[in-house]
Amino acid sequence: MIIETIRIRHSTRKFLPYNLSEDEKKHIKEFMAGVSSLHSRHLEWILTDHNKGSGVIYAPCPDKSSCLVEYGFQGEQIVLELTKMNLATCWNASIKINAAPAGIVVGKEETGKLSLNDLLTGMGKRKELPALVEGPIPQDEKLLQILEACRLAPSAMNRQPWKFSVQKDGLYIWTKSDLLGNHHWLDLGIVLAHAFLAAKEFFKNVSIEKAAGEKYRLIMR
Ligand SMILES: Cc1cc2nc3c(=O)[nH]c(=O)nc-3n(C[C@H](O)[C@H](O)[C@H](O)COP(=O)(O)O)c2cc1C
């Protein structure tokens, strides 16, 4: 179940010295090449031997909102796949390689060690659903699980800038603007990835469409 992977994932900021095996690299590259897209836009994901963790994953992506949402959407699917592989990750917006808006650090966690950012960002604490959902919170168990998967998504500075609204024609998801820059678009893509993957566990046909007012609609049939 993807929700289990989502629950396990957390940002790791202290890594052990560890070289990814050839099998791990091969699997990561294959997954990155086939990752689902939001706007049918293929991003060229690259795994480098950057000097953080065991490597850094990034893709060139211009600083445009549509590309940033796509970046978050594809990048978070990669993060969750790495989590399934028992690898630790951290999105990192201060890594700027080849016009990438953020890097994904990957490696093996050095457990029991906290960093300043762990403390500054609230140790992964999350807002509760009533603060995130506009209108009534659904009673339906599947929708509740999808919302829970969204609630647990990572975001820059743990701001959790998203809002949700459950309507008859789908789950609407949007983001509040970010005083710190464009990170809310990455965060929006990330939460859409959580919504998409969780919904696919319950529904045969799941798609995401752009709706009015910079909102996205998750359609489940
Ligand atoms: C787009 C994005 C950029 C981030 N940039 C950084 C960063 O530069 N440095 C850092 O330590 N953590 C960074 N993070 C990690 C967040 O602080 C973290 O996801 C958030 O605090 C929630 O904690 P969790 O991932 O452990 O659940 C970033 C996360 C996202 C989604």
Automatic annotation (TrEMBL):
The keyword Methyltransferase does not apply. Gene3D superfamilies: NADH Oxidase, putative nitroreductase (tm1586), domain 2. InterPro entries: Nitroreductase-like, TM1586_NiRdase. It comes from the Bacteria. Keywords: Oxidoreductase. GO terms for molecular function: oxidoreductase activity. Pfam families: TM1586_NiRdase. Residues 2-199 form the Putative nitroreductase TM1586 domain. The keyword Thylakoid does not apply. Belongs to the nitroreductase family. This is Nitroreductase.
